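ok so I'm stuck.
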Amino acid sequence: MTRQNTATTVPSSDKIEGVYLCDDLDMPDLFDAAMAQHPALRLYPASDVPDPENIRFAVVWQPSEQAFAPFPNIELVQVVAAGVDGVLTNPNLPPKACVTRVLDAEQASIMAGFAAWHVVWHHRQMRNYLAAQAQAHWDRTTIKTMRPPSQVTVGLLGYGRLGQRIATTVAGMGFPVVAASRSPGEAGDNITRIAGPDAIKTVAAQADILINVLPLTPETHGILNAHLFAHMPEGACLIQLGRGAHMVEDDLLAALNSGHLGGASLDVFQTEPLPPEHAFWHHPNIVITPHEASVCSPHAVAQTLALSIKELTLGVPLSAAVDRSSGY
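replied:
not stuck anymore, here's the structure
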């Protein structure tokens, strides 16, 4: 990606100053120790910045609409997770700032393991075992209904870096994988890749278990809706690991309550944290996790930030840059 602005020349003896921008997490507690391994960087909580005009970069997670406004000279915005839509849509995001995501070699494996766990949960109907345990009941009824993995198609929406690792992991467990991809191309053993305008609907129609890891774009906003659910096989299950705005939540509840869908695993939501009164919490066929399907290490965040600042200062393309026009 071509740099979008010209870096200010900073004396090598000076620290480059940045700010944490997040309302939901204690960013200094999470990241200060890792950032300390890069002595050229100095980071402040937003309330402790001595001179806002000296701030050249921000480390962010779901920043508020006004978060960037006090800092006119931000050149780099480092997001601490894979999803960047909450930053790209921020009305005060500096127009010339480079936006970067974390480069973490372990991230795809963490996400793939999480997805595979939920595939097994739905395939083996694990909630039945927990219900039986609660009653001290030795229940082996699941063995009568279990289908072998070769007869359970796993659909995958999204075939980027994370999607590809999920596909190979799940296919290696014996499940045929059908993936909706933005563009055609080769796929691995036991994986079918489908591209084109109807790819998402085509994949959903075949999926006994559907995993969503799409990026959030105008085209994918609300894509998990009643129309798509109606195309899925009776009793199919959804694993939602993408972005909260992908899903029309009332449509999922209707599909589950009607029995058309058999279950759902949800890691992301329209409103986070998920309100205590939300119907999802107490639905018997829903598994909830708090947006932790893929967690980047503080070390990886700090390493990516240091690399990006070095590249920015040198005037070379940023390795971790996000294409702001495409949204990922």
